[in-house]
């Protein structure tokens, strides 16, 4: 396993302490995270059926509370899991606690060799259980899944190929896990309050009650003003022939290009999210030019991540309270300049467990066509997660 450095924090799993924390995890989830765990007995049984095997759990990442929800799921299954967590979370006592719980760090956007080595080492151990968020970060969207990074399947395939040389019957499973949240109470008043707050902050005057707009019309008015303001801030003129998705995409690419230019970085064709994480890692490592410049650039990267997965039509396609508030909370982060916003009300964290994929059946394919096998399984896993979100 990789040693601890100031750039990498390995797991220091404490089984007795984890069992103690797991015993109260439901109370923590309910009291501090305002959330209930929902998972079927059949899905729990499906996980327990492969209890003696090596397992990689891949899960979508809609909110900043997902880690605690997954820890509670592990408690429900009765297992100890390892978790890959962003390095910036490993600070002070919180960092030590995360290590004790089986978490280890990853420097996103930089090809963290120590973290990769740690994952490969763990997966070679009997009964290894590792949680990976293959989207590469939080999407802030409850019902859709961002593209998966190939490493989530490439690493376990690499280990499986090595293990198969010693024992062709060795099992190593990858399990798609779908996580979504549902508010358990009517959210009309909360949506109204959130809309009113944004309208007031942006100076939007809503017509009197006799001519009141719908929630969706008001959401569009807020989003339109915010989009116009950001375009103006970054000196982008509107093109009438472009739809919102084209404007959002153009804006994201323009802003990330500006950020990279400030650090003399060359665009490398990677997804915007990976480019943002690289900038954030460099900002943390470098001596800042000035505090003001450093803070401003960091905040720009936060704004990029906030809008990375957004698209026009997300609410219109299925105007649930969750989708409304997904979008409104994005707008609140931008308008109020808040990096993390707490959930609006008590929720359920609903897990669906997909069919485990035994990688021993793909070793021959991997040897014939490594890139194609990785790409095919990555697509299959993402589709499985998305399908279970929609069910």
Explain what this protein looks like in three dimensions.
It comes from Leptothoe spongobia TAU-MAC 1115. InterPro entries: Plipid/glycerol_acylTrfase. This is 1-acyl-sn-glycerol-3-phosphate acyltransferase. Strands 1, 2, 3, 4, 5, 6, 7 and 8 form an 8-stranded mixed β-sheet that branches. The model has no long low-confidence stretch (mean pLDDT 92). The chain is globular. The protein has 391 residues and is an alpha/beta fold. The longest helix has 21 residues, at 370-390. The protein folds into 2 domains: 15-184 and 346-390, 3-Layer(aba) Sandwich (Glycerol-3-phosphate (1)-acyltransferase), CATH 3.40.1130; 188-336, no CATH class. α9 packs parallel to α14, α10 (244-262) runs antiparallel to α12 (291-306) and α11 runs antiparallel to α12 (291-306). The protein has 16 helices and 8 strands.
């Amino acid at each position: 396993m990789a040693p601890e450095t100031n750039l990498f924090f390995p797991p220091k799993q404490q089984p007795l302490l984890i069992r103690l924390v797991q015993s109260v995890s439901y109370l923590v989830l309910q009291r501090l995270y305002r959330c209930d765990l929902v998972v079927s007995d059949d899905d729990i049984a499906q996980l327990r059926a492969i209890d003696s095997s090596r397992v990689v759990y891949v899960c979508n990442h809609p909110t900043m509370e997902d880690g605690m929800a997954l820890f509670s799921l592990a408690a429900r299954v009765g297992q100890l899991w390892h978790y890959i967590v962003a390095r910036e979370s490993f600070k002070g006592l919180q960092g030590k606690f995360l290590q004790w719980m089986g978490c280890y760090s990853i420097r996103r956007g930089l090809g963290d060799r120590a973290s990769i080595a740690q994952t490969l080492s763990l997966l070679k151990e009997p009964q290894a259980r590792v949680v990976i968020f293959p989207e590469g970060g939080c999407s802030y969207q409850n019902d859709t899944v961002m593209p998966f990074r190939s490493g989530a399947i490439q690493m376990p395939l690499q280990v499986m190929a090595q293990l198969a040389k010693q024992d062709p019957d060795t099992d190593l499973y990858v399990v798609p896990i779908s996580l979504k949240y549902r508010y358990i109470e009517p959210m009309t008043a909360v949506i109204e309050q959130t809309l009113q707050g944004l309208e007031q902050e942006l100076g939007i005057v809503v017509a009197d009650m006799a001519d009141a707009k719908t929630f969706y019309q008001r959401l569009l008015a807020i989003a339109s003003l915010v989009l116009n303001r950001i375009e103006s801030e970054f000196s982008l003129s509107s093109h009438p022939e472009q739809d919102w998705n084209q404007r959002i995409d153009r804006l994201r690419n323009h802003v990330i290009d500006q950020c990279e230019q400030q650090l003399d970085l060359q665009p490398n064709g990677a997804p915007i999210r990976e480019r943002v994480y690289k900038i954030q890692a460099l900002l943390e490592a470098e001596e800042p030019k000035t505090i003001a410049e450093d803070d401003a650039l960091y905040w720009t990267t936060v704004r990029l991540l906030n809008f990375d997965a957004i698209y026009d039509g997300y609410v219109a396609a299925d105007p649930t309270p969750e989708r409304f508030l997904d979008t409104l909370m994005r707008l609140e982060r931008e308008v109020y300049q808040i990096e993390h916003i707490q959930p609006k009300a008590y929720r359920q964290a609903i897990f669906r467990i997909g069919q485990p994929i035994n990688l021993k059946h793909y070793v021959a394919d991997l040897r014939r066509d490594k890139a194609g096998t990785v790409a095919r399984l990555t697509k299959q896993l993402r589709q499985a997660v998305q399908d279970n979100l929609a069910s």
